[in-house]
Amino acid sequence: MEKPDRRPISLAGIGLISAGAVLGLALAAPASAAPSDTPRPAAAPTVEKDKR
Asked: Which residue ranges have biased composition labelled Low complexity (predicted)?
């Protein structure tokens, strides 16, 4: 009988592949997908005073 041409894969290799997949998905997600806890107030206009 012929032996299959498969090579054994270590569990460490599978862990590295899955960690890379999770990191890739986390970086691909848009930053605006996570809602902020408190909405930011609108910026108020600043008043400039003349120095005399």
From this structure: 30-45
pLDDT in tens, 39-51: 666 776 777 776 6
Tokens at residue 28, please?
Answer: 């691909």
* Torsion, CA 22, CA 24, CA 25, CA 29, rounded to 10: 140
> How is residue 43 written in tokens?
């910026």
**pTM for the full predicted model:** 0.42
Give 25's contacts (C-beta < 8 A, 6+ positions apart). Answer: none
Instruction: Kindly give the residue spans of alpha helices, DSSP state H, lying in 1-52.
Output: 11-28
